[in-house]
Design a protein that fits this description.
The chain is α+β, with helices and mostly antiparallel strands. The protein is built from six helices and nine strands, in the order ββαααβαββαββαββ. A hairpin with a 2-residue loop joins strand 6 and strand 7. The longest helix has about 70 residues.
Length: about 260
């Protein structure tokens, strides 16, 4: 109710409005305001999406081009890398080559290139990983047999017979190959490499030397040794993340341990 003064003194015009009508109109007004705000929000969201999409399109095209180039490059490198490895094996049979220090350095470089090529080949297949039941103990046994020929001075032991996990076989083999090869490469004289399991975990242990920064060894730019580029363990980490595998490293003055935990078990 409201009073409005008139031209006559002491006279007022009385206006009465029902509260229900007032509340109804107020509610409708609020609905219109909310609807307008929602519409404006949707318009801004759509415009932001279109602008972001147009801005990121060149970047996306560049990534796809780079990915295709990398795959083509790795594929084209397969033939020369295989040819070099075969020729190295032929030359190794000759006594004057097998005992030559320069030849041994070249051989080591070829092995590094071959390992990197294999790592990148598997990494580029990350998006199309096919998972299957894999016996890890069988894989580690095969890797140890190969490493025994390369490092006859190291004592190898495996306490593992049947540890089955659902993984991509090529990827997990490459992960274990890298870790075990490093356990052999960075070891003490007459040292050991031991592989065993506990629950969902696979342990790969060697006799040192102590890793200075174990929390950094999976970083791409980090390498604790001048002989290593650090790329191998970075690829190991990326393959592990793709299959939801956790890898932890523990190091002290007596031993180093890589603890591999599997989510798919």
């Amino acid at each position: 109710m409201k009073y409005i003064p008139t031209k006559k003194p002491y006279y007022y015009l009385q206006i009465i409005k029902k509260k229900s009508v007032y509340n109804k109109k107020l509610f409708i007004l609020k609905i219109k305001i909310w609807a307008l705000q929602l519409l404006l929000l949707l318009v801004f969201a759509f415009l932001s999406y279109k602008l972001a999409k147009n801005a990121l399109k060149p970047l996306q095209e560049s990534i796809l081009t780079l990915d295709k180039f990398a795959k083509d490059l790795i594929h084209d490198l397969n033939t020369p890398v295989t040819s070099i490895k075969l020729n190295m094996k032929l030359l190794e049979k000759k006594e004057e080559c097998s005992q030559n220090l320069a030849f041994q350095r070249v051989k080591k470089s070829v092995e590094t290139i071959s390992e990197l090529h294999e790592n990148l080949t598997i990494l580029l297949q990350e998006e199309t990983f096919q998972l299957q039941e894999v016996n890890l103990c069988k894989i580690t046994q095969e890797i140890l047999q190969t490493q025994q020929q390369i490092y006859p001075g190291i004592r190898f032991t495996q306490e593992c017979s049947n540890f089955t996990v659902k993984l991509n076989e090529r990827a997990i083999k490459q992960i274990l190959q890298n870790i075990i090869a490093n356990a052999c490469k960075y070891n003490v004289t007459n040292g050991y490499v031991k592989i065993y399991t506990k629950g969902k975990r696979l342990y790969i242990q060697n006799s040192g030397p102590k890793i200075v920064n174990p929390e950094k060894i999976f970083e791409r730019s980090y390498s604790g040794d001048k002989r290593s580029s650090g790329i191998g363990l970075d690829i190991v980490n990326r393959l592990a993340m793709a299959m939801k595998i956790e890898i932890k490293v523990k190091s002290d003055d007596k031993s180093n341990s890589f603890i591999v935990t599997f989510a798919h078990n």
